[in-house]
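Quick illustration, no need to memorize.
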Amino acid sequence: MKELTINGAVVQAYPLTAAQRIHYYTVMRSQRDELLNIATGFYLEYGETDFDTLRECILEGYRKFESMRLRFAKDEEGNLYQYLVPTEDRYIPLVDFRTWKEEDAHEEMRRWSRLSFPMNGGPMSDIRMIRLPNNYDGVYMRVHHMTMDSSSIISFYSYVLQLYCSKKFDGVEAPKDPKSYLDQLKIDLAYEDNSPARKRDEEFWMKELNQPEPIYTPFSFRNRLDELRKETKNPNLRSCPSTGRNLEASILVYDLEDKPSRELMEFSRKHRIPIAVILLTALRTVFSKFAGKETDISVKNAVARRGTLLESQSGGSRIHFWPLRTIIPMETTFMDCLKIVHAKENALLRHANYDPILYMGAVGKHFKTEGAYECLTLTYQPMSAASLKGKNIPDIKYKSMWYSNGVALQHIYVTVMHRPNDNGFSFHMEYQKNEVSEDEVEKLYYYVCRTLFYGMEDPSRTIGEIIDWI
């Protein structure tokens, strides 16, 4: 902890956590501040919305969620620190799009989503109440990724929704207060202060470097590693840049139908295999196909690190990105492959608190590379605002939006989450639109789905058989 003088007032400021340093590193590398915007919309259809009450609920959410009141400032040496402001009393405007075409309204909100937050002591969020055509009302929210991640955002929306319903409907309980971000921050910083747990995690990750060098595998039939080998005249090259020269990005969203979504969840429950593991297994199988049945596959896995009650309810940004590498022969069955990936992910999760930036640096130094071995990052978001809502809330039609900030540092980034209306799966595929074609994105989704359901239909099928069939 350090005392900083901000606008004449002395505040208690804290260093960045490892999760925040990851984001800060990426924005410094890209020089595109909007890269760290997360912009979402949550809309519902249920009679006439009381926007005065909704505004009160949003401001109450600001008061309860400490990470929504985070600010950043540099000390005299240029190091970035974070601190809390005691109140957030900005006016929450109402924007009426009822006379617009709905897609034009969403396009306007995409434009807002590209507006960056300067890290100079100013607010790190922008919330606006929205009236859409077709009788949908709700909230648009843009936040800085160093203050909130997707779990935090969904928790905030859920809190505001339940609080609003408790004020408007009989028998609806007010939401419980979230946990303190500051309490969790102090625990995270104590871990980083040469704690025994950190030493154990460092030992685990440094042992990973004793394995032979991994290899980059493609996310489409275009093999960028082979192209780079020809370009550099280095046939032994095993890593490849994970980003292109042009960072302009877009998002394609694919909705898995209700029935196959339920089949996927039932398979997960029956075999006690987490959804994230099933998705990772499908992805690595598809990458193996695109790479000519390569058995050594690495996928970048986004880990939420929300195992305790304090972690899950304290908001903030807790995502760490870790490579999940598995070497699995073609004769391995789909079920055995799931078990191998599950065991690997469990080991990774036990040591996920370590600083990924330190590990990335160690990998680059050890294998003498500036490239990457993972062609894609996967985030699985197990929560939806609908699944978090409290008891006795009326049956309300929902729809949600994730708006592209227009920039991506990686070729392709896949976020799988549950739809708010039926809890089915949506695949949000963010991609660098001048580096990756829509056809590549569409084929990736197509092959992932074929792999998922052919494997789940008969888990005794081998990975080689699945690759030959898909």
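The CA atoms of residues 110 and 403 lie 6 Å apart.
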